[in-house]
Amino acid sequence: MKKTVVALAVMGFGITGVYAQDMVVKIGNVAPLTGTISHLGKDNENGARLAIEEANARGVTLGGKKVKFELIGEDDQADPRTGTTVAQRLVDAGVKAVVGHLNSGTTIPASRIYDQGGVPMISPSATNPKLTQQGYKGVFRTIANDVQQGSVLGKFMVSELGAKKIAIIDDRTAYGQGLADETDKAAKASGAQIVAREFTNDKATDFNAILTKIRAANPDVIFFGGMDAQAGPMMRQVKQLGITAKFVTGDGGCSPEMIKLAGDAISSNVYCSMAGVPLDKMPGGVDFRERYKKRFNADVQIYSPYAFDAANAFITAMQKADSAEPAKYLPELKKVNFPGVTGTVAFDDKGDIKEGAVTLYQFKNGDWAAM
């Protein structure tokens, strides 16, 4: 009996020793998973999850050990204070990288926590220029910033839509106001007059007061800097008030959800912009959409391809460095250059994506059509 126990103990030790050879590498993902833009947050998380699951399926080794990547998801509720709290939680949990956050307003304050903790981060969707202007060595993004997007939007409204008078509304978040400011500058530089500059917040649903003021200014175009959760209801109220101005918004409103929320108020006079190129025109977009649909039984919203590329940038850098330790793989992350779903993934010296394309869309036949 004693011999059997000893034998089992030895066998157990041996099995434990085998499992100990596998290395678990935790990668964090942060986005709003509750609240009015949780559909976008879940889309981001799904993109990162798909990249990690595919890496695990094909097998990755670091330092001679087989790696199992594990996604640690956190909900920042699109709130800056919650964002820093969950960022610290991820650092304390020992994550080696973070894909996130979604909103500029949460990403910018959270980036300080990651920098202090020595954890590199890549946002797939935070577009405020300030994110990569802070001097943090481990901060990157896989999407074009608001300087690029705002410049395109401002010129487009004047040169293509013929706008002479433009009204601008923003939600006073780092993203919404940042994009509105850049669009304002570009529109003025192109010769337009800004006849109204109003603001709301990212929880609002009633815009009648500011839209009534804007109606009196009789603009040719209304531009909104914010997310689809506000843009959709705003469109309904624009129609209710009989405002005939064209409506333009940025990538935060360029989603299927915006169309759903706007209902019959949306028309061919509505336009939006997206950083990057349409999913169908992304080098790996069509295949990505099919894999995403099969895995999650859901359609791509906006940013999941960029989250997928962000996660793969980390994995690529770790493989190049043969290590998951940030101090060792960060130099390789700065040098990555590979064909991603969205295009070539390579960063400039600030951490911005090098090929920051912007595409304009018009609402046609029940969907967004690239122009």
UniProtKB/TrEMBL annotation:
InterPro entries: Leu-bd, Peripla_BP_I. Residues 25-366 form the Leucine-binding protein domain. Gene3D superfamilies: 3.40.50.2300. The keyword Signal applies. SUPFAM superfamilies: Periplasmic binding protein-like I. Keywords: Signal. PANTHER family: AMINO ACID BINDING PROTEIN, LEU/ILE/VAL-BINDING ABC TRANSPORTER SUBUNIT. Belongs to the leucine-binding protein family. This is Branched-chain amino acid ABC transporter substrate-binding protein. It comes from Parazoarcus communis SWub3 = DSM 12120.
